[in-house]
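Possible regression after last week's pipeline update?

I re-ran a chain I had predicted before the update to compare outputs. Posting the input and the new output here so someone can diff against the archived version. Not blocking, just want to make sure nothing changed silently.
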Amino acid sequence: MKGIFKNDFYMVYANAKAFSIFMLLFGIFAIVCAGTDSGLYYLMYYVLIGIVGFSVNTVVAVFNGESTSKWGKYKITLPVKRADIVKSLFLSHIFWLGVGIVFAGAGTGLSGLLYGYSFAQYRELSLIFALGISISLLVGAIFIPLFYLGGEDKTIAFLIISLLCAIGIASLFVNVTTNVDYLLRLAVILGSSAAALLLSYPLTLCIFRRKEY
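New output (post-update):
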């Protein structure tokens, strides 16, 4: 599986490198603006775009690469289990989500050191982190099985559907937990989204095992 994961990594790397440059420039802008009256909102946008952006970039790059290079058809002929192929996709998704969190955390941490934030402001930022992570996990949970179920020609449509559904579901998690204890609220948002991704793995595997090329 190590070779499969490495291939998925290199499929994403070029796009991730370009997106990293964008995040670096956007981060500088967000940090500079963070000292203004509405600066916290720029930082929130930076956090949300960074976390979700890397995750969406992963599914786009990997599955677009499989479609254009026919790698998806070729790799099932290799001496690897289909379970390892699916597992590599989910691990790649989680890995790049982690990269997005690192970028978002670095920008937030530096802004906090430069300007200082109140406890209430940190709570708001933490909720935005939870929302971004939730959307990212849900995008993977919805898109990956849909791709294998529907085929390569519907990739863009499935991505749009997945992203809209993920935003809607994650926002619902945030809204229905408004009156819940803050830490429990974060746990519910993140735990529910993580559970969705975990359940998506056996579903995707079941679909992929039945798939014929």
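Follow-up from reviewer: compared with the archived run. Residues 82-115 form the longest helix (34 residues). Marking as no regression found.
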